[in-house]
Write a structure and sequence with these properties.
This protein has helices at residues 8-17, 22-29, 33-40, 48-58, 71-82, 93-102, 104-126, 147-156, 163-176, 184-196, 228-243, 245-255, 260-279, 282-291, 296-302, 307-314, and strands at residues 199-203, 211-214, 219-223, 328-333, 338-343, 373-378, 384-393, 405-413, 435-436, 459-462, 474-477. By secondary structure, the protein is an alpha+beta fold. α5 crosses α7, α9 crosses α13 (260-279) and α12 (245-255) crosses α13. It starts with 7 loop residues before the first helix and ends with a strand.
Length: 479
């Protein structure tokens, strides 16, 4: 018996992407508005004839209706409902999946409310005077997630791929002939002069600024001492402003951010996205990455791009019909703060709290910069990942400027390991013992982990006076 396909969320997203009301959408595909409404609310399945009609009219890949693109939202909600500090109910994964599918707006509201509650709680623990929040008003400004979190979620839920910008960058890259040049910086400099009559000068004085675009003087000033690949990337962000400003504005508008701060951060992030796609155009980069088995050092050297740019670009290769491997990418500072996180995998990043100390990205700080380590790790859901980590040190302009060092982590499910050079020296067969890692200690179910910082939030710790292990407490399930 054929399984009925309930995919109202996908239908609703397609309609939203084309800016159509239910009535307009229904008219285009020859159905009644009431019928479309029932499909979107999962009261009716999507039939084969409806799928074929949508494919014919809108050119949508039918695989979109089968793809479990709500896994990440389900995982995020599982983290929320695991925190029994704020409720006493047991919510199953099946119930969460039902909620996410039928009521995505409610889902987002729950995560927003939990984020605000978690923020208030954490601050209350640290500061007795938390109630006097600076700048908060009775209308509840504090319940909003931070601007950075808004932007982070935007990329997180789009597989870190922005089709309109990616294709525009690829087209411009070929027009400039960046794939056939020895120095991308020189090529971009010459193109800016020819196309926009903008000169690029390299300056010796740092003065806290890497690049300055002075439109009224038709001049770009760039700090001479930074690496050539960084100069190219910075020029790419200026080119984004010059060539695709309207495309970026449209993406920001469609994202419907809640604050002006989030809009400005997203605009910068999308300029950066365009720059990376310009320097590493999709088809060329995917072909080269596949050929060299995703050797990040080799890609960096042969394509004149930094290690970080290459890692980030690998995590964006999710063009429909021409997908690369699904990678996650994370950038962490020495204090453990997550500076960037993107994922086209099921790998779950913590939305609240730190990350797992067993994860090799933290060990990258113990290695020399640009030295890569690899690990087979298993998340609590049983999925195994090939985790690759390194550290990078940013340019230090003078003695008074502190060293900026970051750990970079990139990885994918073990089933893709044959296509990745970093797996060659690892045991990835079924008899190997992967490193057991978790999202973070707050919600990790691994009670016997000797690296635990504290018990999981749904467990009650107790001290056994008659014995002590590496971790000084034992736990029992709450309730």
């Amino acid at each position: 018996m054929n399984r009925k396909l309930y995919s109202g969320h996908t239908l609703r997203q397609i309609r939203s992407d084309f800016g159509l009301s239910q009535t307009e959408f229904a008219k285009k595909i020859g159905l009644s508005t009431a019928y479309v409404n029932q499909i979107e609310n999962n009261n009716r399945p999507v039939t084969a004839s409806v799928l074929l009609t949508i494919n014919r009219i809108f050119g949508i890949d039918l695989a979109a209706f089968e793809k479990n693109d709500l896994d990440r939202v389900v995982q995020d909600l599982e983290e929320v409902f695991a925190d029994t500090q704020f409720h006493s109910s047991t919510v199953s994964r099946q119930e969460i999946q039902e909620l996410v599918t039928r009521a995505p707006g409610v889902t987002q509201t729950i995560m927003d409310l939990y984020g605000a509650l978690r923020s208030y709680h954490d601050r209350d623990v640290l500061e007795d005077d938390l109630v006097q929040m600076s700048g908060a008003d009775e209308a509840g400004v504090g319940v909003r997630k931070s601007a950075y979190d808004e932007v982070r979620d935007f990329f997180h839920y789009t597989d870190n791929y922005v089709d309109s910008l990616d294709r525009a960058a690829e087209k411009l890259s070929h027009e400039i002939s960046l794939d056939n040049c020895q120095s991308k910086f020189d090529m971009l400099t010459g193109w800016l002069s020819k196309r926009f009559d903008i000169g690029v000068e390299q300056v010796q004085d740092y003065q806290g600024t890497l690049i300055r675009h002075q439109d009224y003087t038709r001049k770009i000033s760039i700090y001479r001492a930074i690496p050539q690949s960084t100069k190219s990337f910075l020029l790419g962000t200026v080119i984004a402003e010059l060539c695709v400003k309207d495309l970026i504005s449209e993406e920001v508008r469609r994202a419907n951010f809640r604050t002006g701060s989030a809009e400005s951060i997203a605009t910068l992030a999308l300029r950066n996205y365009f720059s990376g796609a310009l320097l590493l155009p999709y088809d060329d980069f995917l072909r080269t990455a596949t050929k060299c088995r995703h050797d990040i050092q080799l890609l960096s050297n042969t394509m004149d791009a930094s290690i970080e740019t290459v890692c980030h670009r690998l995590s964006t290769l999710q063009r429909q019909g021409a997908n690369g491997l699904p990678f996650y990418f994370v950038k962490i500072d020495r204090a453990g703060n997550v500076v960037k996180r993107h994922s086209a995998t099921r790998f779950q990043f913590a939305r609240f709290g730190g990350s797992c100390p067993r994860w090799n990205v933290h060990q990258a700080f113990e290695q020399n910069s640009n030295k890569f380590t690899a690990q087979i790790a298993q998340m609590p859901d049983g999925v195994e990942y090939l985790c690759i980590a390194t550290s990078v040190t940013k340019h230090q302009p003078d003695y008074g400027t502190g060293e900026r060092r970051y750990a970079l982590g990139i990885g994918c499910e073990v089933k893709y390991s044959d296509a990745i050079v970093y797996a060659d020296r690892l045991a990835v067969d079924e008899t190997s013992l992967p490193e057991p890692i978790g999202v973070n200690c707050r919600i990790c179910p691994r009670d016997d982990c000797d690296q635990r910082a504290f018990p999981a939030i749904d467990k009650e710790p107790f001290i056994d006076p008659g014995q002590r292990g590496i971790v000084p407490y034992r736990v029992k399930a709450a309730g």
